[in-house]
Amino acid sequence: MANRVVEVVSALAEPVATELGLELVDVEYEKEGPRWVLRVLIDKPEGVTVADCEAMSRRLDPLLDEADPIPHQYSLEVSSPGVERRLRRKEDYRRFTGKEVCLRLFQPFEGRRKWQGRLVGLDQEENVVLETEQGEKRIPLERISKANIVFRFPA
């Protein structure tokens, strides 16, 4: 059911985000303690403001009421993806080239399930190219279960 909710909400939210000059980064639907949370993550080049989140929420809420994709009570949260945003799409790996990232894998690559380093990009074979302390690594995209930017305070 959660995948279906994400699919429906993404289809509703994408045109709203585009109309507001925003990028729909992700939609998450998960149980947190006793409650269900529908989280819509948005972004734009100059950063997301509270006003952007409010505008997205105001426009999306009536569409959700009309489509009614969730059969029970839930909380709608609209926010930015944050400084340690997840990388989900191929475009994310291209867009955030040069950033420090952490990759968690479904199965080990060279004996490890967790890799961290500077993102070099995505190669032609769809491997994530990572500059690590052990040298450059080419990790197959399909092995990655979770990837996110690692925030570091400036020195």
Question: Which structural traits does this protein have?
Answer:
single chain; 155 residues; alpha+beta; GMP Synthetase, Chain A, domain 3; SH3 type barrels; 5-stranded antiparallel beta sheet; 3-stranded mixed beta sheet; 3 helices; globular
Order of the strands making up the biggest sheet = 7-6-5-4-8
Q: Could you report the average pLDDT, rounded to the nearest whole number? A: 93
CATH hierarchy, class of the largest domain: Alpha Beta
Q: Let me know the largest β-sheet.
A: 5 strands, antiparallel
Element pattern in H and E? HEEHEHEEEEE
The residue fraction in helices comes out at 25-40%
Spell out the CATH superfamily of the largest domain. RimP-like superfamily, N-terminal
Which term fits the overall shape? Answer: globular
Number of domains: 2
Radius of gyration: 17 Å
Which stretches are poorly predicted, pLDDT < 50 over at least 5 residues?
Answer: none
Alpha-beta classification = alpha+beta
The fraction of residues assigned to DSSP E strands is 35-45%
Distance between the termini: 45 Å
Q: Can you count the beta strands?
A: 8
CATH architecture of the largest domain: 2-Layer Sandwich
CATH topology of the largest domain: GMP Synthetase, Chain A, domain 3
Helix count equals 3
In short:
The chain contains three helices and eight strands; from the N terminus they run αββαβαβββββ.
Tell me about this structure:
The chain has three helices and eight strands; from the N terminus they run H-E-E-H-E-H-E-E-E-E-E. The chain is an alpha+beta fold and 155 residues long. It has two domains: 2-79, 2-Layer Sandwich (GMP Synthetase, Chain A, domain 3); 90-149, SH3 type barrels (Roll), CATH 2.30.30.100. Helix 1 crosses helix 2. The longest helix is centred in the first third of the chain and has 18 residues, at 2-19. The model has no long low-confidence stretch (mean pLDDT 93).
